[in-house]
């Protein structure tokens, strides 16, 4: 179940936090394919999928315990080595079929951008002298939270760090990335949005791992039922999906 946005503050002293992994790269946007790793045949001794990721990715990561109201300003406090930080969610596309070698398809969704030192101006490099970067020194979408993005526990947060230019100016926002060239999976189009999360980014809600074949007959070939329902709930009666609990073992996500 994805986290739900709320205007009420989270009672952090009363609610247990969850583990969050944040991966970062400098001057290079982390790609969803970086996180697609085929698990071995024997997974007995593997308790965490992230341990299968390449060492180069695991070395550039931080692990924290946080809550649904964790904001981009808080995450930026962990990564203060640049001037512009662009955040995204990365998660497996449960609608896509497995690729060659047993690798799944991973997609990303924009979270927001934060600027250390404000939206305009030069980078003065004196945050250590001022006792660290404070929220007052941050610009951009600092107030967006994991709950706003319908974060699902187990998703990854990735961050691209853009240091200031040679003239000291803050790096510009990078252009939007289109689907990779020669990617046969890109022709399928983006998966459905995540349970009405903000923006039009990729999502996971209501999808089958095997995709919709349109062949009829329930199971993996059936489209999801219509109506107001969420992952893990029983579909409403009279829906035309007909695929849950029948056919080839389809199950809601």
From TrEMBL:
It holds the Pfam family SAP18. InterPro entries: SAP18, SAP18_sf. Residues 169-253 are annotated as: Disordered. GO terms for cellular component: nucleus. Residues 198-221, 239-253 have a biased composition (Gly residues). PANTHER family: HISTONE DEACETYLASE COMPLEX SUBUNIT SAP18, SAP18. Belongs to the SAP18 family. This is Histone deacetylase complex subunit SAP18. It comes from Friedmanniomyces endolithicus.
């Amino acid at each position: 179940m994805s986290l739900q946005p709320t205007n009420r503050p989270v009672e952090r002293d009363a609610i247990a936090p969850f583990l969050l992994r944040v991966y970062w790269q400098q001057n290079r946007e982390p790609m969803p394919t970086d996180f697609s790793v085929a698990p071995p045949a024997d997974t007995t001794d593997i308790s965490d999928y992230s341990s299968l990721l390449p060492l180069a990715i695991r070395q550039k990561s931080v692990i924290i315990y946080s809550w649904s109201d964790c904001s981009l300003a808080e995450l930026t406090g962990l990564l203060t080595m640049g001037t512009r930080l662009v955040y995204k969610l990365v998660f497996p596309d449960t609608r896509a079929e497995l690729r060659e070698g047993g690798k799944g398809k991973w997609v990303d969704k924009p979270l927001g951008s934060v600027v250390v030192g404000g939206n305009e101006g030069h980078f003065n490099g004196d945050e250590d002298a001022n006792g660290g970067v404070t929220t007052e020194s941050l610009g951009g979408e600092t107030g967006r939270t994991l709950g706003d993005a319908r974060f699902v526990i187990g998703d990854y947060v990735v961050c691209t760090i853009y240091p200031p230019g040679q003239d000291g100016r803050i790096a510009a926002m990078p252009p939007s990335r289109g689907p990779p060239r020669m990617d046969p999976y890109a022709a399928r189009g983006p998966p459905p949005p995540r349970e009405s999360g903000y923006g039009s980014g990729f999502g996971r809600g209501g999808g089958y791992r095997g995709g919709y074949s349109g062949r009829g007959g329930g199971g993996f070939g059936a489209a999801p039922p219509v109506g107001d329902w969420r992952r893990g709930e029983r579909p409403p009666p009279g829906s035309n999906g007909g695929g849950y609990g029948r056919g080839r073992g389809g199950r809601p996500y």
